[in-house]
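Preliminary data (for renewal application), NAP complex.
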Amino acid sequence: MSTLRRVWRLERAGSLERLKLQVESLPEPAPGAARVRVEAIGVNFADIFACLGLYSATPAGAFVPGLEVAGVIDAFGPGTEAQTDFRVGDRVVGLTRFGGYATSVNVGIEYLHRIPDRWSAAQAAAWPVQGLTAWYALLPLGALEAGKIVLVQSAAGGVGLQALEMIEACRARVVAVVGNDDKRRFLIEQRAIDPALVLVRDPRRFGAQLDDALRAAAVDGFDCVLDAVLGGSFRPAFDRLRPQGRYVLFGAAEFMPHSSRPNYLALAWRYLRRPRLDPLAMISANRGVLGFNLIWLWEHAERLRSAYLELERLLRRPPHVGALLPFDRAPEALRLLQSGATVGKVVLEAS
Ligand SMILES: NC(=O)c1ccc[n+]([C@@H]2O[C@H](COP(=O)([O-])OP(=O)(O)OC[C@H]3O[C@@H](n4cnc5c(N)ncnc54)[C@H](OP(=O)(O)O)[C@@H]3O)[C@@H](O)[C@H]2O)c1
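Predicted structure:
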């Protein structure tokens, strides 16, 4: 039997104003899939880029945004229950390659994972995308180890806060960069980071700010940089990597338009001014840049189970939900995240 659901859909990418709330029926899950009654949906920066038509992985034509949900399994596709440990009634998080902005979704069982005990649905929906991003950036790519020092851009954001937890769990050290004083205060008060190691990014003197922080930490450079901002802060941070240092690049928040639709002229200007590196200089300086897009994991679902085990090993507390909005206010949630002012995760509550 099909089930009725509500979804946020765009007929085509290009503007946040194209998001429309619709009621439709969801077909029965196919073999290998489960139906999840959604309780909470994680809002990601990528959702905004997708709606604006600036994210290459976005489906052509009409699409429902959303990369992650948390909820309860309420049905399985034919023959599926016999192939899985999941049962109807289990609380799960699910990765969705788009389609998550819905009150009910069908998800392949390989993309489901049980919600850790005592977590709310909102905390669970705040976990997979940003947790996997922070983990992949810090461990497989960043080669994080005890004693190393990591520069984390947007450290009070969704990915940033989860990265801070993992750095602490690995007994490594951090210099945190944020965009405003409120976020700095949050990190000092709520995450007990040494005030000398929390910087409010000032594009005019970012290099000098980093030097002050390195002096305060009594080190001569960073072992790893996590950066999804790009733009003017890239070069000063790259130049302060130690030999064997790894610059992990996974986003370009500076390209985020601050209106409902992109200003293509402004984007082209930013694109032309994007940082460039000389590969020959990288050899002599013994520093590297690594880039990734997590959507790649979608094609390698067999790796998810071990990745989630790693996330659980590194967990110290549930993700911080900074804003919880009802499902009907999805466009407002996107605009809030787009503003760059949020702390932690923005989550939609579906029931
Ligand atoms: N490659 C991947 O697979 C992957 C996966 C997930 C996320 N990401 C990227 O990781 C970053 C963090 O994602 P998130 O979902 O956790 O978001 P978030 O960090 O909670 O929010 C984005 C942050 O970007 C910073 N920012 C810098 N310039 C900005 C601008 N011009 N407009 C708006 N914000 C700006 C703001 O923090 P500050 O001002 O404090 O720096 C803002 O809070 C994003 O860039 C996202 O695209 C990449």
